[in-house]
Amino acid sequence: MTTPTDTPDSNPWGPPPGLPDGAGMPPGPGTVPYGVPPASTGLGVGSLVIGVVGLVFGIVPFLFWLGGVMGILALVLGIVGHGRARRGEATDRGQAVAGIVLGAVTIAVSVTWLVVLVVAAQVVERTDEATRGQEAVSAAPDEPGATAGGETLPEVPPEPEPTETEPAVLAFGATHTYEDGVKVTVSKPAPYRPDAFAAGYEKGDTAVRVTITIVNGSGKAIDVTTALPDVRDAEGAQASAIFDGSRATEMFRGKVLPGKQAKAGFAFALPADADGEVQLELAPQLLVYEPTIWTGPVK
User: Fold this and answer.
1) Contact present, 216 and 257 (Cβ < 8 Å)
2) Rounded to whole angstroms, how far apart are CA atoms 29 and 32?
C-alpha cells in the first residue's frame, strides 16, 4: 500500500504555489479571509436615511417632536456605524458621518421649534390675562362710594340728568352721561410726584394726575382702548403725559361689558407758568362717541 506524500498539492490547507507562507490558509477565529473586504453593517446607511427623513419632519411646526426623535436615532446609529467603520468592520463610514451631521441638525431644529412654541404660548397667556383683567372690572355700584366687591370709590358729585341742553363743557369731578347710558367721570386733578425714572416730566413742571371712570350703562360692550385724554393748559399748549415706574399713567385696555365699569389714571406735566385753567377732552370710544371737555384749575 502506498503512503500519501506530503506535497503542496496534496495539502488541502497549504498555500498555493507562488504565494507566501500562510496565504490561502482557512480563516481562524476573529480573522478576515484573504482578499475579502469588510461588509457594510447598514448602520451608516440607516443613519443617513433616518437623518434625512427626520430633518423633513423637524422643519414642520407641529411634527418637530417626531423629527427630534428621529434625529436622536440617526445620531446614535451614525456614531455606532462610524465606530465600526474605523475598526475596519464596515465600509459605510461616509454615510455614518452624514447621518451624524443630519441627526445633530435635526435635533437643533426641533429644539428651536420647541422654544419658539413655548415662548409664543407664554405671550398669548399673558395677553389673555391682561384682557380678562380689564373685562373683569367691578359692576356699577348700587350705592355711592361702594362697589359690588366692597371696594370703596371716591365720592363724586351727583350726576346730572342727561338733557338736550346739557353743556359740552363740565367741571372736573362732574359726570357726563351719553344717550345710551354710558357715563364718564373725570376726577379733580391731584398733585403727583413722579419718581426718578419718570419720562415726560422735567424739573420745575407741575405734575398732576386725574382718575377717569367709565361706566357702561348701555346694552352692548364698548371698547375703551381708544379712550385717551387730550390735556391742554390755559394757553392751549398740549401737556405731556408722564410715565414712570409707579404707574403714573395707566391707559384703558380691552372692552367694558354692559353693567360694568373701568377706571384708569393719567398723569400730566404742565409748565410752571401754566398753573391756571386746564382742560381735558375725552371720548369713551373714538369715532363712536362725541368727546366731552372737562375744565378747571390745577390746584
Assistant:
1) yes
2) 9
Exposed / middle / buried, residue 215 (Cβ in 10 Å: 0-12, 13-18, 19+)? buried
Residue 208 CB partners (closer than 8 Å, separation 6+): 189, 190, 191, 192, 267, 268, 270, 278, 298
User: Residues of 269-281 as b/e, b for ≥16 C-beta within 10 angstroms?
Assistant: bbeeebeeebbbb
DSSP states of 185-200: EEPPPEE----TT-BS
Q: Which one-letter amino acid corresponds to residue 278?
A: V
DSSP state of 243: B
Q: Measure the CA–CA gap between 87 and 41, rounded to whole angstroms.
A: 12
How does residue 121 score in pLDDT terms, banded at 50, 70 and 90?
Answer: confident
Closest CA to 201 of 264, 147, 270: 270
Predicted confidence (pLDDT) at residue 107 exceeds the cutoff of 70? yes
SS3 76: helix
Beta-carbon contacts of 203 under 8 Å, excluding residues fewer than 6 positions away, are none
Place of cell 400730566: 268
Q: CA 110 to CA 179: how far, in whole Å?
A: 57
Given a cut of 70, whether residue 40 has pLDDT beyond it is no
Distance CA 74, CA 108 (A): 13
pLDDT band at 146 (very low <50, low <70, confident <90, very high): very low
Q: How far, in Å, CA of 104 to CA of 110, rounded? A: 10
User: Does residue 157 carry a pLDDT above 70?
Assistant: no
* pLDDT tens per residue across span 169-207: 899 999 999 999 999 999 999 999 988 878 888 888 888
